[in-house]
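#onboarding

Welcome to the new folks! Below is a worked example of what a typical request in this channel looks like: someone posts a single protein sequence, and someone else replies with the predicted structure as tokens. Don't worry about understanding the tokens yet, we'll cover that in week two.

Example request:
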Amino acid sequence: MVDIIDGALFQRMVIHGSASISVQKQAINDLNVFPVPDGDTGTNMSLTIGTAAAEAKKKPAQSIGKAASVNASALLRGARGNSGVILSLLFRGVSKGLKEQDEADGIAFAAALSEGVSAAYKAVMKPAEGTILTVSRLAAAKASQAAQEHNSVEAVLEAAIAEGQIALADTVNQNPVLKKAGVVDAGGKGFLCILQGMLDELRGLPVPEEEDSGLPAKESADFAALSEEDITFTFDTVFIVRKTADKSIDPFRAYLNSIGDSLVIGEDDESFKVHVHTDIPGAALSEAQKYGTLELAKIENMRTQAEELAAGKKAQSTDDLEQVEAELEGRGDAVAAPEKKYGVVAVCAGEGMSSVFKDLGVDGVISGGQTMNPSTEDICREIARTPAEVVFVLPNNKNIIMAAQQCVGLIEGKEVVVVPTRTVPQGISAMLVLDPEADAESNAAAMEEARKNVRTSEITYAARDSDFDGFKIHEGDYMALAEGQLFATDQDIGRLLTHLAQSGSQQNAEFISIFYGEDVTEEQAGEALSIFQKECPNAEITLLSGGQPVYYYMISAE
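Example response:
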């Protein structure tokens, strides 16, 4: 039984916990009840603690206080989505509880877990029962009891996990949505998965490794053996996709064969790995996101590599990226001197959406949204680059707001104001009222009021079968969402658009904007416009190419 831990052991526990959730993240993603293809709790938590694990491997620390501090800092920078932010807050509290300590016994570690719970609850505006907060609170309370009986870190963790599992099982009864779906809370399960990994490290169990996805070891071409004539397609492209639904990838295989050659796909139940030569790697990656979450990609230009080798030079490859990234990050960390009073950073996905924000005067656009939440560090980096005294941040997604809020106070010399926009249309409306002559407080109030006046509807597809909120949903059905809530489903997108256009929010609107996504043709978008013009004759309607993934249409009504 391990009674006392130091900094080095704590870091190994974090690394083990990160590996444990990494191999189970898809199972955690699958617990997300709503069938929209953005179930990413496991992915967000895995990426968040993965940042801390990477830092632990680089910076060994002997004192547990120092190790916990480095861990908390890395988690904050890497926090993605609400679940990732809450996870970072739990460990930030742990760091506070272990501050300046060389070692920790069971009592100290249990107290630190309680500090973590306190930090997380303080940061959440309306804590709900049946979530990661409930699971962590009850686990920490049991840990404190166990520490009084047996002052051992291993015993404390064991008791916390056992109680946490009971609490997790009960989340299905505490949350009506979970109860109807018959699943437990994804965030709570992810947290316990990490704690279990930490306990396994104390017990000397091996760190879990993800299974090989099946791609042959030779992942890139032998460029030295190639001539210009031998290269049919330019880019050697390799990427891994974690599946988010039980969906055949045969159509994707056919698509890749139509845009390239040398195709190899290794597939298992959870993921697939692709190797293909193509001239349009971006198209291949975009298409891949219809089948899951893109986790890793490597793209190399075979023509330039062949030329460099033919000239007797070292061919540049993705193996050189670590050095390049270090140089770029070094430049990106510098805080831009203020050249104006106000600047704006917005999060969105799709070239069309990005162009709209840039045309409105946004300084920096971060690519992200559903299925690809940027980290706190990503947002902080863009804020730092913005040459303004006050930087307004438009998250434009409910699952990015908390990550953005963590940036407040982190960047010296800049005031950061997060406007809690939950959709892209809300962000656009907020941007339209920014007044360069008004003070920051007045602008924040005006932007908040503007976002509240926007009603957002979206049309996407069901990633899996589900019985949700009275709707019997089948995989592939079109789904209409109104203010994030399920409005209607249909197998005919035209009928669904008509039903949506007839709703009160559209009928009472003076202005309607329809942003069509990357999977919608101009002809199809024109048909959607015609439906709204017929059903909403009193509104001024604008059709724009948003280019957004996942959502066929985003519709704002004001």
